[in-house]
Every structure is written in C-alpha cells, then in structure tokens.
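pinging the channel bc i need a second pair of eyes. not urgent but kinda urgent?? the chain im working w is below, pasted from the shared doc
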Amino acid sequence: MLAVAVLVGTIGAMGVIRAAGQRTDDVERVGGLESVLADVPDPDDPSIEYPAENYLLVGSDSREGVDPNSEDFGVIGDDGSVGGRRSDTIMVLRQEHNGGAAMVSLPRDLWVEIAGTGRSQRINSAYNEGPERLAATVTQALGIPIHHYVEVDFVGFKDIIDRLGGVEVCVGYAARDLHSGLSISEGCQVLDGVQALAFARSRHYEEWDGSSWRQDPRADLGRIERQQLFMRAAVDGTLRKLRSSPFGSGDTIQAVIDSVRIDEGLDPIKAGDALRNAAEEGLRTYALPVVNDVVGGNAVLQLGEGAHVLLDYFRGVGPAPEQFETTPDTATASG
C-alpha cells in the first residue's frame, strides 16, 4: 500500500509540481513530530559510514471520506467502523545519499515496548496514540532513527492507482480473499484501485491449486511480501508514466496532494528529487526475521535470529545484509 509514499517523490521529481507552484503548500502537515524526528545526517561527515535518510511510511486505516456507494464499502467500512485512524501498514524506507533505496516492513503484530508508556504491545497500537508515538516507538524499540514521516489513507490509495491507469501484477496462481474482495486470475493483469487495495490489504489470501482453494499460511508475513511486490510494480509504472507524459499528470499530482500527510519539515520537491533518484537506482526490499510467540494469550511476533543485522543497516551502522533481501521483482506495471 505504501507505494504511494514513493509516488509522492516520483511525481514531484519530474518538474511537474514546480509547474504547479503553490500546490505543494496544500499538502497536509503532521505537527508534533519535531521532538522525535532525528536530524538528517551530513553525507560529508567522515564519521558516518552509511549516511542515509529514513522515511517512516504509514498506511492509515482511516475511513474518513469513504463513499458508501463504493463497491468495496463493505470491506473498508465507514467512520463508525473504526474510531479515528489506525496504522494498517508500517514501513521504513531508507534513502541512500549515494543513490538507491531500501525498504523493510514492520509487521503489525511485532511485540515492542511502546515509547513513553513503560508497557509492551503490538507495534501498530502505538499509532492509536498518534504519529509521534509511533515514530518514537520505532526509534526507541528498534533503534532506527526516523528523519521524515509520510502517511496515506485508503481512499487516497485507490484514487492514485486509478489515475495512474492501474498497476499490473503477475501471480503464479489464481487468488482471492472473500474478506477484502480480491479476485484475480493466474498470470499478469492490471489492477484498478479497488483490486489493488484488496491485494495490498489481504489477510485471508487464498490460491487455487487446481483442485481447491488454499489459504496462505504465512498470514501477515505473506501480506507483507505481496505489498512489497506491489510497491515495486507501482514505482516502475509511475516512473514510466511520468517519463512518457511528464506534464499530463496534473490529476495524479492533485490526488497525491489530497491523500497524503507529511511532517512539517519535509520539502515535497526536494524529497521528490531524492526519491526519484533512489527509485531509479533500484528499490531493494527486506524481510525482518521474526518468530511466532504468545503473550497474555495473544498471538504476536518477536524479533528473530539475525534481526539485529538487518536493523543495524536501517540504523545506519552496518552494511546491507543480503540474506534478508526478498525475492527479485516479479511484477510489472501499466502505463
């Protein structure tokens, strides 16, 4: 789902937002993060071996603005279904100063100490108390400095994908999710905003093995893999679209502006240039090693063996660990 966070950068990077002028001022800002966001490291500082900027990317489970006549209203629900906003997806995007980018997804059920509370809980619960609490928790519990914050909601995600003309994904088996409304065929197909959201959010993902439907036993970990696959496809498709028609994307730009919230110190144009360069260098995705556990009768995830090696990379104190890099691109995009 957090493909759109990178789309903010790729769209803003082509000179299109510059042409739009003051439209960047319309991006909603999230206040109160100044005390928890880290200072951006100086790439010329010889004491910093792996300089980079970390973006905390949050997919908001907000129902604000959901159309009750939408075909997937029953899956998303309205404001009454969920109070306020919840974090549906949490990722950290590491943008290297020397080009390239890497991303790790943080499972919603990861058991951590919630910053400033003295109690432990699933990491997605930190967002219930606001973006500041979530950013502080990622930094304190996992040691990852957060320099920027980007958030997008359900409605915005669907709108952006539709304005891009959809995103093509390729799967080895026909798949469905009776809860999210997902229904896709074996092979490659272009997903519109509704199906893209269903694919990215699916927690009851089933594949047809030729004789019966089999549910993905990896649960949230399988969902993370699908989100990363989708994100790579969306980034590729966006870059192609903007190269072919850089000044014909005004509607897409407006959809992004209407749908995201960013920290007060983030310059959309500067971030766009950096994120476009990073995306063109290649987006690497990583899987955080975790193990199943039960705490207080609740199924949760704990950090697994070798997790510190991957975390050190996103902390900026270690090299990229190849053993945790996920599968190469298996998806493409329309445009």
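so The chain has one domain: 3-164+225-324. and Residues 220-244 form the longest helix (25 residues). — does that match what u expected or am i reading it wrong
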